[in-house]
Structure formats: C-alpha cells, structure tokens
Amino acid sequence: MTEAIVVQPSQSLVGGVGLGSSLFRARPGVIELVHKSSRQENVKFGEFRICSTNEHLGKSIRVVLLAVPQVQREWFIDKAVFTKENKGCFSLDGIQPHPNAAQPPAMYCSTCTKGNINWTKWRKTKDPNDLPPCGEYFHLLVALRDTQLPYYLNIKGKSYQPFQQAMQQQLAGLLAKLVAQVKANNKANGYTLVKVQDNPSAPIREEFRPTPGFVVPAGETQKPVEMLPNLFDISFNISVTSKDGGSFFMRFDDFKWMKPEDRAEFGQLYMDLMQQKIDLASSNAINEEAEAAAAVAEAKADAEFNAPIIVAKPQQEILPPIVI
C-alpha cells in the first residue's frame, strides 16, 4: 500500500516569503513633469511620469516629504540647451561645485560670477541678461501617498517660488499649529519640553521630560508623551498648471495631518531609507545615486520653464531638520 505523503507545517507555503530582504526594498526612483519640449517618446505633456518605467501618474500626485528639501544648482553653458552634455557645472549642496562638474567657474557657489552675485548687478540694470545663469532649484525626496514608494523630484523654474511659498506658509503654518497642540497636551499630562545635550560636542535637541512636582490625579495613570510632528506626518498635493497656454509649472496645496496609522507607516519608510543610506555609505553608492538624480531628464524642459526666477536674496533654509 502506498503511504500518504504528509507535508509538515514547516514545509508548507506561507505568505510573505523573502519580502524582508534588503534586496527587495524600494530605492528612490525619479519623477519628472513632462514639458512640451520633451524629446522622450510616448510621453503625455503636462503630466508627471516615472522616468525609469515611463509610467504616467496624471496631472496631480499626493506626496509626503521624507527629507528637508535641498537647494541645488546647475549651470548650462548654452542657456538655451538643457542637456547633460551642455551642463557646465552643478552643485548638490548649493555650497561647492560637484567634483564631476565639467567646467566649474569657481571653487564656491557664493563667489561664483554665474551665481547669486549677479543679483546685485541685476538690481541696478533690471536687464534679463544680467540674471544669474546658474539656477537654484529644490531637490526633494518624497513618497507617493497611495503606494508609499519613494522618489526624487526636482522643483525648478516657475515652480520654484510657489513651492517656497507653500513650504513657508502652508506647511510651516500647519507644523506650528501641530507643535503647539502637542506641547499643550503634554503640559496637561505632566511633561515639559526641555533642551538636552548629551555632551559638550553633541548637538542640542529638544525632548519632553516629566514636569517636576506634577501630581497625577488619584485613580488615574499618567498618559504617555505625545511625539512632536515630523515632515513625513503631513501629505499634500502637487498638481500641474499653466497660464495662457504657456509652459507647465507646479502648484502645491491641501496640506493635511495624516492618521496615526499612516504616520507610522511613512515613519517606517523614512527609517528604512535612512538605514539604506548608512548601508550604502561605505561604498559611496549613495553619492552616485545623488549624481544620477541631479543629471536626470528635467533638463529637457524648454527655455521659458528653466529661465531664472526672481526671488528675494539671500534665502534662508525653508524648514529646520526635525528630529524623530
């Protein structure tokens, strides 16, 4: 008689096998806004697309910031040709040209004759030819709200000022309200926000500590500390618009505080990405990743879109880093 084959529980198939491997964790891709002058095939003008797959995301995306936006710079030798080959210089930190820049005009961005020094001349002449040929833009690391997948996104040209205003007014305003509410709740529950420094060379941070002399009402237990908000606790919309049939640019609105479970998920995504950076740092792979993002397809936009934007100088950092 043939014996029945018994499958042991340890041999049975279960869901999720292999999904915890670092090999399968999402690495940031690149999203761009497709402009009318794009030379890419099979693209839809005025829509966001994922560069690696050419998947179009439509005219609006909802995102979560995973890092403080970085100010970066780029200078094209021929100001009407936006190609990688024509990129004379670029900076990933807005302080110094990148080592791989082809023709850096100066050692530091602050002393470069093609940078912000030109604003002084322009204020006197008001001549468009005197505007800084080296343009600033914001480099973002975001996650899509619906898929939680991370992407790089550059905010350039006519989108620069609307983004800056949205960060300084809408996002900063919402964060201020949330911080005030958390402080009030924690104060009522017996906690005070204090400045802490682990040692003289360590950075100063803020954290909630038990309030001296606070007495928990009889029959009750002290409630846990509420954490301060983070950038990745807030989602917002980025949509595409244009004026009078001109070039496309982005608008930013509908900033909202997410539900606790959603904040926890994006917080974990943030932690995963930070761990990836640590893991990759020894091989300098993260630097190569940043270079690739800096040289991405947004350079194909037309001259009108990439024209320097007049903004108040000097600029200040949009948002301070928020410690979690």
Estimate what percentage of residues fall within beta strands.
15-25%
- Residue runs with pLDDT of under 50 for 5 or more positions: 297-324
Q: How many helices does DSSP assign?
A: 5
Number of strands: 12
- Distance N terminus to C terminus? 65 Å
- Compute the average pLDDT: 82
Q: What is the chain-wise order of helices and strands?
A: EEEEEEHEEHEEEEHHH
Largest sheet: 10 strands, mixed
> Oligomeric status of the shown chains?
single chain
**Fraction of residues in helices?**
10-25%
* Anisotropy-based shape: globular
Task: Name the structural class.
Answer: alpha+beta
- Using only CA atoms, what is the Rg? 24 Å
Write the layout of secondary structure elements.
Layout lengths: L28 E5 L14 E3 L4 E4 L1 E6 L4 E7 L10 E5 L26 H8 L8 E11 L5 E6 L4 H29 L2 E6 L8 E6 L23 E8 L7 E9 L2 H22 L3 H10 L8 H4 L18
Parallel strand pairs: 1-8
Antiparallel strand pairs: 1-2, 2-3, 4-7, 4-11, 5-6, 5-7, 7-8, 9-10, 11-12
